[in-house]
């Protein structure tokens, strides 16, 4: 059995700062005539802060207006974005971790033929509720019960007749 000192592997020489500087002065090489493994790597774009890269979209380029809907008998306020003036209602429900703005691009096209309502659900976006973490079906039913006859219902009704509507989600 071979001892670790008698290994068949050869060690690579360590690069010094001077070697690195010299290598960068030789186009695409490492100073000894061989091309560098990094010679084809494109230059990185300037570094941006996460807050710049992932800044939220402005709603006004996609939706016509926004509103806050207060739920009677509670401190819950749900934020909605709306677009379009006629046609069926497309009610957009976003997935976990998103907001009504997830539908911004779709709304800008759909509003040409329908009305769009995209809301920030409990614990998301600009909505504010007493218990942001309670995402249970029971809490959802309780909230929907308080909304009956409230502003949400009026968004999709005219003269007590429910308009044609479609539900869109992701």
TrEMBL record:
It comes from the Eukaryota. This is Uncharacterized protein. It comes from Catharanthus roseus (Madagascar periwinkle).
């Amino acid at each position: 059995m071979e001892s670790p000192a008698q290994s068949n592997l050869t060690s690579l020489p360590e690069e010094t700062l001077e070697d690195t500087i010299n290598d960068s002065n030789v186009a695409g090489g490492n100073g000894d005539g061989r091309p560098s493994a990094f010679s084809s790597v494109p230059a990185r774009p300037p570094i941006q802060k996460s807050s710049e890269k992932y800044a939220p979209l402005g709603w006004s380029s996609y939706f016509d207006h926004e509103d806050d809907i207060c739920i009677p008998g509670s401190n819950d306020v749900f934020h909605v974005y709306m677009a379009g003036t006629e046609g069926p209602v497309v009610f957009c429900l976003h997935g976990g971790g998103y907001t009504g703005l997830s539908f911004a691009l779709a709304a800008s096209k759909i509003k040409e033929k329908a009305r769009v309502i995209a809301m920030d659900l409990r614990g998301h976006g600009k909505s504010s509720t007493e218990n942001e973490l309670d995402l249970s079906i029971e809490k959802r039913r309780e909230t929907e019960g308080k909304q009956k006859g409230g502003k949400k219902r009026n968004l999709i009704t005219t003269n007590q007749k429910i308009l044609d509507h479609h539900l869109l989600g992701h």
